[in-house]
Write a structure and sequence with these properties.
227 residues, alpha/beta, five-stranded mixed β-sheet, 7 helices
């Protein structure tokens, strides 16, 4: 079983802080096997991380967190950026056009751009996997909803730290029963549902600081996308 971090942000994200180097150093330090940098609507840092990951004993998985019209979608295994502002369905199609994996993060956290504010439960099932544990939680209710939903639909489940600072990388991990220690094998195993999840809460003070510090930049980012 490989320990995989599937949801992190670098300084290229409008609300991220640290460069790729610090993220990879942290991933190595906490004993991860693989990591995906998933910046908001940006892919360059993720491609850099995937290229440099072997220097840290890691498998790099390129990807991004895409702002669809319905909310956030993680695209994993990408080579090129998927444009923001597409419909939920078109976002999934654009990910799959690159043979990527569409993971729906924090779907029931509507205040954090979870897609359930704008799509039906039937549409949510069109994702390739559901993030059922996101470390940036307050009560855990949204995570429990996501897990119940994924189990009821027999959908693959993942976890993610949603780390916006390097120290939080590895707070939540997906254990993946991959046949090989490669990005392709990891994504194939996730799609097959060969995963278990584990994690712990991001400390409240860090979540609050990150939210407060990113409000201005977040609003500016949203305005730029949809003006």
């Amino acid at each position: 079983m490989l320990s995989v971090e599937l949801h992190t942000h670098s300084s290229l994200s409008y609300d991220g802080r640290d460069p790729v180097e610090l993220i990879l150093e942290q991933a190595e330090a906490v004993g991860l096997d693989a990591i995906a940098v998933t910046d908001h609507d940006e892919i360059d840092a993720s491609l850099e991380a995937a290229e440099r990951a072997p220097d840290y004993g890691l498998v790099g998985i390129p990807g991004m967190e895409i702002s669809s019209k319905a909310g956030h979608v993680l695209g994993l295994g990408l080579e090129e950026a998927v444009p923001p502002g597409l419909s939920f369905e078109s976002t999934l199609e654009a990910i799959r056009d690159q043979d990527g994996l569409a993971v729906i993060p924090h779907p029931f956290q509507e205040s954090r751009h979870g897609v359930m504010a704008r799509i039906s439960r039937e549409e949510l099932a069109e994702g390739d996997a559901i993030e059922v544990y996101n470390s940036r939680l307050f009560t855990g209710r949204a995570n429990r909803q996501a897990e119940r939903y994924a189990r009821s639909r027999d959908l693959p489940m993942t976890a993610g730290s949603d780390a916006h600072i390097s120290e939080m990388v590895g707070q939540a991990i997906t254990r993946v029963d991959a046949d090989e220690r490669t990005a392709d094998a990891i994504l194939e195993a996730i799609a097959d549902g060969r995963t278990t999840v584990e994690g712990k809460r991001t400390p409240w003070r860090i979540s609050v600081q990150q939210f407060a510090g990113g409000v201005t930049r977040r609003l500016g980012h949203v305005f730029k996308l949809f003006r």
